[in-house]
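Marked as duplicate of an earlier ticket. Keeping the data here for the record.
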Amino acid sequence: MLNSIITKPFILLSLLLGCIIIAFQEHIIYALILILVMMCGTIFTPKVNTYFKWIYGVSFPLLFFIIAYIHQTQDHIQENLLSKLHKEQLVKVNNTIRYKTHDQIHGRLLNNDHQIKIICKLDTFLPEKLYNGDIISIKGKASEFPKGSQYDDFNPSEYYAKQHIKYIVYTKKENVIIHPISKHNIISLSQKYRDLCLTFLKNLFKDKIHNSLMSGILIGAKQELPQEIVSAFKNTGTSHILAVSGMHLAFIYGLIIFILAKVVRIRNKFANAAITIFLIWLFTFITGSGAAVLRAAVMFSFIEIGKILQRNNDIYNITFGAGFFMLLLNPCIIYDIGFQLSFLAVLSIVLFNPIVKKIYASDYKFINYLWEIISITLSVQVLTLPITMYYFHQFPTYFLLANFIWVPLSTLLMLGGIIALLFYKLLPFVSFLIVYLTEKIIDFGLWIFTIISNLPYYFIENIYIFPEQLVAIYIAIFYLAYQIYYSIKINYFYFLILIPISTIGAGLRYLKLNGTNEFICFKIKNEDLIFIRKNNQIFSYGTSSQISNSAAKNYINQNLSKIKNHTVIDTNTTKSLNISTILKAQGTPIGESIIYQLANSVIDTIQFLPTILLFGNQIDKRKLQKTNFENYILLSENNHFIIPLNFTNYE
């Protein structure tokens, strides 16, 4: 085992670093307990070299703890700096993202003592494009991102906090002054090449859907894609084709190797490696340096360096090595869903593709090629499917069919797009011929989506996996992989043990909810939706006949509840709800009149029980300050408010 750890050090180091970062961000005491356990576990392990014990047992946990501490204190803004921010800001641009209606500038404030990352959202497009290193002056009021809740599908505050961004400035185009610079760096140049490629693609592909799809597949610029196309890829389990990922970079890497070896015929291995590494990182910067493509770029760089050093490239060590260095540069990337999925996808292929591939073999190369696609698609799902269902709560039923068709199609589209771009100025007729064929391929792929969407059980929704269940699933998977890898007879007893373990969490949640009541209001634009939960039954009141709000659905599933009754509120005749009457009707004791006023109103009547608060979508804090708050509980979130009901004093 010692030899294995020494020859594959990044496996242990990346797992160690990742665990400490997660424990530190949860609570510093967790990280301290974790490194203490790791130290004791290594130092007091028998049959291990004493020198090795102290190096791994003491040095690395402490070093990683210091890294986590420095990252948390320096990169994450701990204090509220809104009062210190000026109305006019000087910003150094990192990147500009162009959406359908506006520009969004990511940058760093220069006229402040703190190194603050910030986002500036404009009302429309800038006439001049901005690139990394440009300096701009903006006028506008900075504000924090709205805080979401555990029931939202997307939490802006939490999402941008992981990118070390806490503030956003809303301003108009005329309030932005550009200070152009003469010097450029590799990132700004790659951004210019990206925009040049997007311009060429727009000239080549006149149809908006064709153009936006090719921009997404080649460069990762999918902001212009219609929502129905994005949903089609998501619901068929082919979203990875739109996000520039390791698959795309693997294609580029293979193409570079082929051109250097067969076309240019460069024999010097140092020159080959240098050109290859430069080109894959150039592509990485052009496509926006997403977590998945970053991981692949680091991996291929390791492979090229290994060739120069004449070292055997161990795929496990390279995979974890890529993750290790990405965590060193930005520890928060461990929370990035793209990073998690891409890392698990590679690990899943490495572990399970050799096993799946052995199931079938043919004497015909073409059939073996098709089986290769199927085996890779199946093996990827082993580790990515559980976490995909955990995050997105759905299962693409026909993912195998969709990937079987779209993976080869995406390869053809990438090849066609690259050829079309290369010959755009040199041989325009060749370029437009390739474009015509590429458009037919896109139309065929979209037609396949139409066919799949009409099949029964197109995709399964409302799948909820709790964290403890996710852990149990992965323990079972890795145990199975261990048994197969070392040709050990599978002990199914352990799998039977994991089944009740995975259900314990749900059972404990159910027991915790039993005997509790909750009043919750969801803010859905100008609509109202009120839940009154009694144990695991929900009585809902809303202005719509159906509950379509995703946060409300998540609340139902996460609380293991079900709608007992839904009452539609007619806002033309009803201006307020008497919550007191409603609670009495549902068998919940209450003693005073409480009015909830509908549709973005302030509080009309403030009357309390000790643990229930009347509120509207806009709370008048001045009125609340004059009220007696002795025992009430208010849990305020971005788009809902929760008031736990406790009637111990009211029999």
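See parent ticket for discussion. Residues 18 and 461 are 31 Å apart (CA to CA).
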